[in-house]
Write a structure and sequence with these properties.
By secondary structure, the chain is of the alpha/beta class. The protein contains 13 helices and 17 strands.
């Protein structure tokens, strides 16, 4: 199934409101060897494409977790990397496979239920080894055999019963065969007595972006206090967006660890293309972007493109010079690094620049303080009356041009949106309002109204009335 294939919705008989937050949800972990269809099944239950799917074995690396409604019940559903036995010792691939298996095995102990997904056909050596590994978890194991659409290869699939499974369910994750029956079996043994609706909370959504190997996953793990993201020196380790939550000084955060974004010409594999595409799309679901830069390597042209995406979405941006512990620890070094940042990102002088070491944990408190501060600015709303008192002062301090050809009057202004922050200026001749004058208004908004460190959008519209006349 490719990235653009539509996933038909499986019937769920949903009885819960999926728009509300939930607490104490049971965790179902989907496991199996590579390329048996775990991510396709995961996406089907979510009814959206959350995990990357590709025919290449081993696409999923980090465990990915999301709330899904299975047979009308809310559960935490986790997709894991494949259990791979055949490894070429000493290669990057073998190192990565070992890390993936470690994550998968760790997930088994957290699961309330384990869904073992097998592929129709003769059992493989990897199947057999993994089944033995699951013996201690037999009481919470459910088994499904995938790729049996239209009854295909069901006669071979029955052979899996010889391993002592009480039952196996034949499904097709791609085509939807028997998904409803599987869902009912998945929730049948789970305890939902402790599940309760949560209250809406203010959650600061932070996306960590940057080039490969800048320390994004190390920072994500440091912030969440987990090892949810696989960390290695191999470029392109993170593929899917890995989510994690944590609280700091009464503020709740959701962290989105993304794939490293490289120049388009260097993206060779379809898998990496999807990973990068997913990382960029993630910006639409974030409030703040932490842009990671390797302090030793410095800036690259690609960094501009990443930040341009964030600025276009109106997100708060924090530039982070990571691995600062490897640099000279003096004020001159930091000043030069900040100056270089300002030169490359001349239109974003408002964005904070911080240094830290994600590996050692230094500078984390300053980073989180900045994130809370920027979120406060993104959420700020200015009353229209106060806004227009300020506007009158700004226009008096720097009046619009008075020539016959370029003359215009500023009538009033309103804030049209928060997070992202947008304002609308109403003028007598909007076509005559210059970009320079709008920049002046934007800078005064930042300086005088408490939006100093975030992007602000100012649009212009025509109006013949003043604010007071409009009110009457």
């Amino acid at each position: 199934m490719d990235e653009h294939t539509e996933l038909p919705e499986a019937p769920t008989g949903r009885t819960f409101d999926e728009d509300k937050p939930w607490r104490n949800l049971p965790l179902i972990v989907i496991v199996g060897r590579p390329n048996v269809g775990k991510s396709t099944l995961f996406n089907r239950f979510l009814r959206r494409r959350r995990a990357i799917t590709d025919p290449t074995p081993g696409v999923t690396r980090d465990p990915i977790e999301s709330v899904a409604f299975v047979a009308g019940k809310p559960v935490r559903l986790m997709d894991t990397g494949g259990f791979k036995l055949d490894r070429e010792a000493g290669t990057d691939s073998a190192i990565m496979d070992e890390l993936v298996v470690e994550k998968t095995v760790a997930a088994l102990g957290k699961a309330d239920e384990i869904l073992l997904l097998l592929e129709a056909g003769p059992p493989t050596a990897e199947d057999e080894e993994f089944i033995e590994l699951l013996r201690p978890h037999w009481d919470k194991l459910l088994v499904a055999v995938n790729k049996t659409e239209g009854g295909r290869r069901e006669s071979d699939a029955w052979n899996f019963l010889e391993y002592g499974f009480p039952e196996v369910i034949f499904v097709s994750a791609e085509h939807g065969d028997n998904i409803l029956e599987l869902g009912e079996a998945m929730v049948k043994r789970l305890d939902f007595s402790k599940v309760e609706e949560g209250e809406e909370e203010r959650v600061i959504r932070v996306a960590i972006v940057g080039k490969p190997n800048t320390g994004k996953s190390t920072l994500a793990n440091r912030l969440t206090g987990t090892d949810a993201s696989i960390v290695s020196n191999i470029a392109g380790t993170t593929r899917d967006v890995v989510e994690g939550e944590f609280s700091w000084k009464g503020n709740k955060f959701l962290v989105l660890d993304t794939a490293g974004i490289r120049r388009k010409s260097r993206v060779k594999e379809d898998i990496e293309y999807y990973s990068v595409n997913r990382a960029i799309k993630t910006l639409k679901h974030a409030d703040i972007v932490i842009h990671m830069i390797d302090a030793k390597e410095g800036l690259a042209e690609q960094d501009k493109k990443i930040v341009a995406h964030a600025a276009a979405e109106g997100l708060g941006v924090i530039f982070v010079l990571n691995k600062w512990d490897t640099m000279e620890q003096d004020a001159k070094t930091l000043k030069k690094a900040v100056r270089d940042m300002r030169v490359m990102f001349g239109q974003m002088e408002y964005a904070p620049v911080l240094s830290l070491s994600a590996l050692k944990g230094t500078g984390i408190s300053d980073l989180l303080s900045a994130a809370v501060r920027l979120y406060g600015q993104l959420s700020r709303k200015v009353e229209t009356s106060a806004l227009n008192l300020a506007l009158a002062d700004w226009v008096a301090a720097s009046p619009p041009p008075q020539g016959r050809a370029n003359k215009f009057k500023i009538r009033y202004m309103v804030q049209t949106q928060a997070n992202p922050v947008k304002f609308m200026v109403f003028a007598s001749r909007p076509e005559a309002v210059t970009g320079t004058y709008i920049s002046y208004i934007r800078n005064r908004i930042r300086k005088d109204l408490g939006f100093a460190e975030i992007p602000v959008v100012v649009e212009v519209k025509g109006s013949r009335k003043k604010w007071e006349e409009r009110e009457r």
